[in-house]
Amino acid sequence: MADPQVRRQRRRMSRLAPLVLLLVAAALAPAGPASAQSLSEIEAEIDAAWRELEPVIEDYNKVRSELKANKKRADELAEKIEPLRERADSATEEVAALAVEQYKGGRMSGLGALITSGSPTVFVDRLATLDQLAREQRRTIDEATEAMEGYEAQKAEIDALIEEQSAQEEELAEKAEAIEEELAELEQMRDELQQQQAPPAPATSPKPDGSCPAVSSSGPGAVAAEFACAQLGKPYQWGGAGPDGYDCSGLTQAAWAAAGVSLTHYTGAQWNEGAVISRDQAVPGDLVFFYSDLSHVGLYIGNGLMVDAPHAGTVVSVRSIDAMPISGFRRPG
Question: Does the predicted TM-score (pTM) go above 0.85?
Answer without folding.
Answer: no
